[in-house]
Design brief:
The complex is a heterodimer of chains A (293) and B (257).
Chain A: H1 2-15, E1 19-23, H2 32-37, E2 42-44, H3 49-61, E3 65-71, H4 72-76, H5 80-89, E4 94-99, H6 117-121, E5 128-130, H7 135-145, E6 151-155, E7 173-176, E8 182-186, H8 190-196, E9 203-207, E10 209-211, H9 215-221, E11 226-234, H10 239-245, E12 252-258, H11 269-276, H12 280-292
Parallel strand pairs in A: 1-2, 1-3, 3-4, 4-6, 5-6, 8-9, 8-11, 11-12
Antiparallel strand pairs in A: 5-10, 7-9
Chain B: H1 2-19, H2 24-41, E1 56-59, H3 65-75, H4 115-128, E2 135-140, H5 147-158, E3 164-170, H6 183-189, E4 193-198, H7 202-209, E5 218-223, H8 246-253
Parallel strand pairs in B: 1-2, 2-3, 3-5, 4-5
Helix pairs in contact in B: 1-2, 1-3, 1-8, 2-3, 2-7, 4-5
The chains are: A alpha/beta (293), B alpha/beta (257).
Chain lengths: 293, 257
């Protein structure tokens, strides 16, 4: 997905003279050609994330479209107030593209993990949040929204779905229709959700845009009042959106997401999947429990 | 000149008195700087506050808003009657300036350490778009405790932003917390052209703003005094975020009437 990010953005930098790329001293090799072709619009800005986000807001104030790229905790957690005040509060457009989703950088330890990003950004009014499930989906979603005048967070993942869906910014996709429950699969969770729900009579919806939340697709396709939310970050970030979709109905919500705790071990992301229960088997168990009560 | 400055001081204190809000001494310490900028240096049209060719001024120390509001109203960016609504529920003028509400306010500030790096981005953006307008940012010495101030200093020099001027309102707010040392030396160490001036001597401020700084950003460290212009508030820390009672208001304004 990261290679696609470089490819997509390089293509757009060539096409759109308003686009300015700010790399937090990562992805520099990937953009090596753009540094030469567009030295005035592609920068290795350095390791100073807070100033970088504010600087990006200044670029937006001169009608440019910034794309800021670094590791998730350094964009979202270190620079949160800059995103909130300098972009969202002032209604400026900009793009924040992170790598290191949740525990993708498993071996680097907890300082480089960022499973709280979505829950945090959900609390910023006007902030858009996008989690593509594949590289192709990133390309589609980025092209559709990078210049929409809003601050948008794109979360790149190391692990992706087997197949790309026909995604549209701001819309969820109906993957499968069933009768006993509704399953929301966020971004790259679709792969495990499809394995878990293969033999189950459930509706599966794929969400790649989390803010704004597509309540309409959920409302029009939900079956019964049982909803399983499968999120690749700290679970619970979409719970309020789901509840608000059904203001007059009691909804039973189950979660298959990352539990809220620091990861003190290293290894591979797959090791943590097992440790945290982020597997198709666990999703299947939760789904059966939800269906059977 | 003195009469006009006192008239502005009066409007600042009146706005604070009516709203029971505001940082009066911080507004007073920057008033001479603002007057030089808006009277003699900045290019702008108050009737076209979004004109792409305008010079940009950013009050990074947003709590000095009353000083900027008074000057913007004086220059015709908005009607002076708004000053009397300062801090009211429906007012366009809040304790910290809002770029979406107030004509002439370029950046919403208040949280310290945001306006300066935003100004750096604006200066870089103007360079990218080949716009010859200048960017002027006013920061505080207390604000300069923030790491983003020095991140900004690093970036502005690296990108050779000679369309950027940073003025430090060195009113010694920081002295009660962290010793900031010689800020002119610090800016020079970051590669800037840097000068020190008496921040209440308008001729000196003007000369400093004309300092040649080709290929480099310019820092002007303005030595100022909180509450300057008011015998009651001059260098009195009790007044940092205090609004006057009816009796204090009468006592403060009588020296300008």
């Amino acid at each position: 997905m990261r290679k696609q990010f470089v490819k997509t953005v390089e293509d757009l930098v060539n096409q759109d003279k308003r686009l300015v790329v700010l790399l937090g001293d990562i992805g520099v090799f990937g953009f090596r050609n753009s540094f030469t072709v567009h030295p005035d619009r592609v920068y290795n800005i350095g390791i100073l994330e807070q100033a970088t986000i504010s600087l990006a807001a200044g670029l937006a104030k001169t009608d440019l479209i910034p794309v800021v790229h670094t590791i998730a905790p350094f964009i979202v957690e270190r620079s949160l107030e800059q995103i909130k005040v300098d972009f969202a509060f002032q209604k400026l457009g900009g793009n924040f593209v992170s790598v290191g989703a949740s525990y993708d950088y498993a071996a680097l330890g907890a300082t480089h993990h960022c499973p709280a990003d979505v829950g945090i950004l959900k609390n910023i009014p006007g902030m858009e949040i996008v989690i593509p499930g594949t590289a192709e989906e990133f390309d589609t979603l980025f092209r559709q929204s990078y210049n929409n005048g809003n601050p948008t967070y794109f979360r790149l993942s190391e692990r992706v779905n087997a197949e790309s869906q026909k995604v549209t910014f701001g819309k969820a996709q109906v993957i499968k229709k069933g009768k006993k429950a509704t399953v929301l699969a966020v971004g790259p969770m679709l792969k495990n959700v499809l394995l878990a729900a293969k033999k189950e009579d459930v509706t599966v919806l794929h969400y790649t845009t989390l803010s704004p939340f597509d309540s309409k697709t959920l409302k029009n396709n939900a079956v019964g009042n049982k909803v399983l939310i499968c999120e690749p970050y700290y679970e619970g970030a979409l719970a309020l959106d789901v509840l608000n979709t059904f203001p007059d109905t009691a909804v039973e919500i189950a979660h298959a997401g990352m539990p809220k705790r620091f990861l003190s071990k290293y290894g591979m992301a797959e090791d943590h999947d097992k440790d945290l229960g982020m597997t198709a088997e666990v999703i299947k168990k939760k789904l059966k429990k939800l269906i059977n009560g | 000149m003195a009469a006009r400055t006192n008239e502005l001081r009066l409007s600042i204190v009146q706005a604070s008195f009516l709203s029971n809000e505001g940082h009066i001494p911080s507004a007073f310490s920057i008033l001479d700087i603002l007057l030089v900028l808006y009277d003699k240096v900045l290019h702008y049209n108050p009737k076209k506050p979004s004109d792409p060719k305008r010079d940009r001024f950013i009050l990074s120390k947003g709590h000095g808003s009353l000083g900027l509001y008074a000057v913007l109203a004086d220059k015709g960016f908005f009607a002076k009657k708004h000053l009397k609504s300062f801090g009211q529920f429906e007012s366009i003028l809040g304790g910290h300036p809002d770029s979406l509400k107030v004509p002439g306010i370029e950046v919403s500030t208040g949280s310290l350490g945001h306006g300066f790096p935003t100004a750096v981005g604006m200066a870089l953006g103007l360079k990218i778009t080949k716009n010859k307008a200048g960017v002027y940012v006013l920061i505080g010495d207390g604000e300069s405790n923030e790491g983003t101030v020095w991140e900004s200093a690093l970036l502005a020099n690296h990108h050779k932003l000679d369309n950027l001027v940073c003025i430090v309102d060195h009113n010694h707010s920081t002295d009660r917390a962290v010793s900031i040392g010689d800020m002119t030396v610090k800016f020079k160490a970051f590669g800037w052209v840097a000068v020190t001036v008496n921040g209440h001597d308008q001729k000196e401020i003007y000369r400093a703003l004309k300092t040649p700084h080709s290929g480099k950003p310019l820092a002007i460290v303005a030595e100022t005094i909180k509450g300057y212009g008011s015998t009651v508030m001059l260098n009195n820390p009790a007044w940092h975020h205090k609004t006057p009672t009816k009796e204090e208001y009468a006592e403060i304004v009588k020296e300008w009437l």
